[in-house]
Amino acid sequence: MHYFKKHWIIFILLTSFLTANAQLKSRLRHYSTEDGLSHDGVLCITKDKEGFMWFGTWDGINRYDGNQFITYKARPGDRSSLKNNKIRSIVEDKIGYLWVETYDNKVYRFDKRTEQFLAINKSVNGGNLKDIVVSKLIATSLGDTWLITEEQGLLCAVYDEETKLPKVYSYQKGKKGGFGIPSNHINFLIEDKTKKIWVGTDEGLFCLVKRNGKYVQYLKRQNSEKILKSNYNVTCVTGKNNLLYFGTSSGEIIIYNTKERVFKIKNLVKGANINDICVAKSGQIYISTSKQGLLVMNPKSLQFEVLKMDGQSNLLSLYEDKSGNIWIEPTTPGIIRYNPYKKVFKLYVHQIEEVPEQLITKTYQDKNYTVFEDVNGVLWTSMKGGGFGYYDEERNEIAYFYNKPGSSDQQLSNVVTTVFSDKTGVLWLSTRFGGINKAIFTGNNFQHQQLEPQSLKRYDNEVRAIYEDSKKRIWVASKIGNLYVFDKGKKIQNIFKNISTAKIGSIYAIKESKNGIIWIGTKGQGLLMAKPLNKERTSYEVTRFLNDKKDSNSLSSDMIYAILEDAKGRIWIGTFGGGLNLIEEKNNKIIFKNANNYFKNYPIATSNVIRYLEEGADGTIWIATTDGLLRFNPESSKNGDYQFYRSSKIPGDINSLGNNDVQVIHKNLDGQMWIGTFGGGLNKVIGRPKINDKLRFEIYTKEQGLPNDIVLSMVDDKNGNLWLATENGLSKFNINQKTFRNYDSYDGLPKEGFSESACFRSASGALYFGCIYGYISFFPDKITSKKYNTEIALTNLQLYNKDIIAGAPGSPLSFSLNKTNKIVLDYNQDVLSLDYSVLDFRANSNINYAFILEGYDKAWHFVKNQRKATYTHLSSGDYIFKVKSLNKDLFTNIPEKSIAITILPPPWLTIWAYLLYAILLVVLIVMARRIIITMIRLRNKVTVERKLTDLKLQFFTNISHELRTPLTLIVNPLSQIAKTEQLSEKGKEYMLVVNKNANRMVRFINQLLDFRKIQSGKIQLKVSEVEVVAFVKDIAAYFNELAEEKNIKFLIHSDVETFFVWIDEEKIDIVVYNLLSNAFKFTPPNKIIDIQIDCASYPDKFIIKITDQGVGVPESKLAEIFELYYEGENHDQSQKGTGIGLALSKDIILNHKGKIIAQNNEEGMSFIIELNKGSMSFTSVDMLEKENDERHSLLLQHPENKTIFSANDSIDKSIADKEKPVVLLVEDNTDLRKFLADQLIDFYRITEAADGLQGLNTALEILPDLIISDVMMPNMDGIEMLDKLKNNLTTSHIPVILLTAKSSIENQINGLKYGADFYITKPFHVDHILVSMQNLIMQRKNLYKKFLEERKIFKLEPGEIIITSKDEKFLKEVIAIVENSMADPQFNIDSVAAAIAMGRTTFFKKLKCLTNRSPVEFVRDMRLKRGKQLLDAGEHTISEIAYMIGFSSSGYFSTCFKEEYKISPSDYQKNRNENNS
């Protein structure tokens, strides 16, 4: 008994093990409410013609597209006719509608296009269907749907093409009009091959045929009288070829020949209820009965045989599988198989999980029984009373399918509520556990082997090294340290003589050398060398090599990751931490050459970790490290002086290495090198580079279709395809087509993934890959993947990231998206997303897509497995969205879907809007034409007025310029008369009158010029700080004499004694003067004119108020008083002015950011000036330093200044004529030129020129000391002449004074920019010119001294001598020549002139003019200064110094030195020594 018990336990364990390992290779996926399912209770499953999966749940129907669930059900407050969300069954008709039976046995039609339910509650031929209880739905090929009721007859829903609605006809017993049937109890309804409808009832059989859209009775009484009269209870039917077999409850078989239209009746076992009939492939007819078991009838003789099984006399449904087995539904738990060949029955029963008795319902026991075969030929059954599995023919059992109660791998309940297998072989089922389970069967493409199947420890089965030796034996090493050697599938024991295969260590590399030695690399336990002990190599002796820190010739590290034998038979070892090792045998001893003793240039600091070694096609060694790729030529050195070439990732370089962590290197059949990286994908070496060439790579990553960017190992097959193990499955790379075919666990690969660098191609062509859980092997040519025809569907539309529901208020979708051909969107619905999915549920994540929006995109977007396309800010227009799948290896067709999209233009861009725009445009054109004509007329008028104004201003401006020269000739002769002639008192009085009116004339001219500049926008303020009280009083002083003449009381009041403000003194002078002038002009005698200065009342502004007692201005004209050319009314002609003064005053005040106001008083009027006190309202350009009034002011003399300025006393008149400076006078006005010549002749030698061209030629000829020139002249103006003079080395030193009527600051700056020394405006005083000339002459005399002493460039400032760049360069060159040659006693002026390429006379004049020294004096002065410097140094005697600086004798040097410095050289030296001591 004990012996039997022991073996029984072993048998059960073995059976359990075999069962577990016999499990079909599949991937299970569970879906629940967490995944979007509306309810975990699922009662029915189907797949529609489009490819969508539909699930009937306790809370509506769910559509699944492989990515998401969409629920359709009744919701609170909606208009759905669905009254119960519990769905019992779903059937799709031929047209595509879904017929849904709810838990209350009501039927609805679901329109997938409108996504709406339609209740079936009325019939066409009378009768309310609300109380009808439907038990079964049957869809026929004619598009009609038949509803079998419970004892209420039969319903037929016929599709109406016009209304698109079903017309429901009721068939009941006793109903007239062709709708009567034998009984309301319906046993079955089928459609035969000729599309006739056969219905079996408990009171007979009838047949309907559709004619002209209506069903009529088919069976004629004359041919079927016996059948129709007999009232058989027809229980079942089946058919084959032209014969239909009907079974009855009384044991008869009714046979109908569809061709001959005749019946036959065969009485079998009297009183035996026939439950089902099955016509087998063999032709035999199997009949299941109640009480009599199974009957077998010969179709020809109609003879039958009773087959009985013990305890199973009541049998129900029958099913024949592909092998001819008959599967029988019993009344007891389980399922029965009858083997017709062996004529044996077998009952299969599953262990059922324990369920409380009250939960075991008839539903589980009866209605859930099913048996079917999937597309792979696997027979599945949900057994009577519970239990689900597939038939395992080898073990002759119904195998559990992850549902054996209590087993470790149980994932499912074995009580199934519904099951469905689609045409691709995917199995869908729902169990008592709830939810939906999807099973994908992976096939047998990949053979998965485990080293220790019974071990639960991961490391026992993790294969880290796998290799095939020359004897075709497979060496497999686990990470835990066990080594397995298989010869033709049989494990070899004790292959090592002196060591156990379990004590080797964790093996990471295996390599057989050409001499038969097996090299084994371990992680942490060094290198093993296994030498064969016989020719058969069935036994090996093992030697272990370890790192010895005391032995430099030992292995550099005990962690061996790579072993390579090159073409020369050398063994290379790659270590983790110790770099590269080369094995060499000396004196029968193995030594290791490495970076410690041999490889001098090996980058051990960065490349100490080696993961892989490979030999290139040219014999170079390629090294995979964690810091890039290394290469070297092993033949390039004999003493270890190898040159290593490193390739690494370069930021920004797409052709550099993908990642520095290199995992594996592979050389394929044609010598092409491939690099697998950790994170940088697959890298193809471009071309066949030489050892010193820079490597360039073509990179393949996830973007190109690689499943993962981490490549663990790779090998090529016989056809040249690369097979890559990655972190996300296996990939086949077609090198020629550059395409990837990826495989994962859905294709039969183990879920656990692959190991590093563990693969090879066997001699048979099979590929082996080490895995984390065992290893796989396969023949690449034998890998097959079933292709199916499928469709792609548009599953969802989003606008601005919001889901759009078809038919909802405001929705652009009237129908479901996948049923919509065109979407019309408003202009503001321009951000849209489209979801799509291929309706293939095998490996949905491996499907790659491409999409394009025609009319927007220029090319397809290849988006891998992305299932959404988003577009933003689409402009109005018509588009076509297309999406397709790229997986040609999965499908027989190319799934593609398109939809038209129209985005409407905004209302303002529609046709009606454009029509309105056109009308408005016409109206606008007409209006614009009128306006333009009016504007042109006004513009012409304004233009004429503006031209007249410009002509007036231009006229006045020209007159002003022309008046300046005559004024000069008036003022200066009068000045000379006043100085030189003895005048009477009356004459002096007249002279003052003339002088005053000349000043008036100058002011008038200045106003015209200033107003012209303001009008042209060229006014430039010169703001400075001014004491305003004294400033106003100075201006008022001009009018004191006039006030006395008219007996006007002229008052000035100020609230402060002094106050400084920031104004343009010259411009405000004009304003105040104009206002006072007007006040005196219009104020009658004996009145009062008052000036009030208010500086204290306001914090940020001051006020000047001028009040007169004149006639005033009408209130209506006050706004016009500051307009150009305004003249008051009712005034005496003598009081009229130019109409410019007040307009100019206003513009000046506005430029100061101030205000000027005119207002009437009780008597007369007031002008109020408001100005800012500070400088904050002015720009830095306005803030100019106040210039010399004498130089730029156009005013001549103050009226109170009775003395005439004279400069004659400061000019030395005793200079001899030959020594007088030469002055060139260039002026086109003869009178002015002659007058100036007369005034200057006493002090200068004068040469005259009538225009600029003549002046330029004269200057070049005589080289004057100074030039005075007008600006505006014929032939050549003064500015052009000045430019030519200053850019000529011969004349660049000559000072130039410009005289001109152009008085603006811009013209003055322009003249100074071109090199003028002074810019004097007309009219001018001769004394001003004389002083300016005298200053220029004196400054020029001091130039040489300053230049030698300071040796620097003078600042180019007004009032100082300007040294041009050419003069500076000239003097520097002369000084340099003299310094270099002064030691030569024979050095003279000719040498200097020749050295600078200038004539002797020209050079003499220029040097004389610049330095006031002759060349001889200049050289002498230079020598004396150098002598003085040498004396200061104190290193030479006086005689030595004399000869060093070019004096022929020391005596002559002493004489010249004393003459220059008033002390002899010896005394100077003595004084210096005393001072230093």
From TrEMBL:
Keywords: DNA-binding, Membrane, Phosphoprotein, Signal, Transcription, Transcription regulation, Transmembrane, Transmembrane helix. Its EC number is 2.7.13.3. The keyword Cell membrane does not apply. Residues 958-1175 form the Histidine kinase domain. The modification 4-aspartylphosphate is found at D1270. Gene3D superfamilies: 1.10.287.130, 3.40.50.2300, Histidine kinase-like ATPase, C-terminal domain, Homeodomain-like, Immunoglobulins, YVTN repeat-like/Quinoprotein amine dehydrogenase. Residues 1222-1337 form the Response regulatory domain. It catalyses: ATP + protein L-histidine = ADP + protein N-phospho-L-histidine. SUPFAM superfamilies: ATPase domain of HSP90 chaperone/DNA topoisomerase II/histidine kinase, Calcium-dependent phosphotriesterase, CheY-like, Homeodomain-like, Homodimeric domain of signal transducing histidine kinase, NHL repeat. The keyword rRNA processing does not apply. Residues 1372-1471 form the HTH araC/xylS-type domain. This is histidine kinase. It comes from Pedobacter cryophilus.
